[in-house]
Predict the structure.
Amino acid sequence: MTNPQPSPPPPALRLIFEYEGDEVSLVLQQPVDTDLSGFDTGTPTGSGEFVETRDDDGQRLDRVPARGAFLESAEVFPEDHAEPITRVDVEARGAFTVIVPAPAEATQVAVVRVVPSEREALPPEREVLTEDVDLATFRLER
């Protein structure tokens, strides 16, 4: 009796992005050997920022949430520890990291903002209440 060899995890990439306002740049693409769970991938619902892998035709293969991306506020700690910590608005500026599935057909990656749609612009029979706005698209290095 032979023991079946576990199949290797599908390829994945660690992507590091920098942003200032809505301007996004991809600063690192790095293959990683990790398992991505269904929690990490799929088609998340709701609004927010996401990173998608796409094929040559621009069709979405997978989408992962970009947690912590495009933060527009910061905590401010007072000098007097008896005072409360406050949150102030700041310009969206920083970096974020995501790990995305990278099957062979994935040739590009896009940073997407999902925003609520204008309800009056939708026909009554449509249930979709969000729309995708591409912030940036980059070719994957292979």
In short: The chain has one domain: 12-139. The chain has a mean pLDDT of 84. The first strand starts at residue 12 and ends at 20.
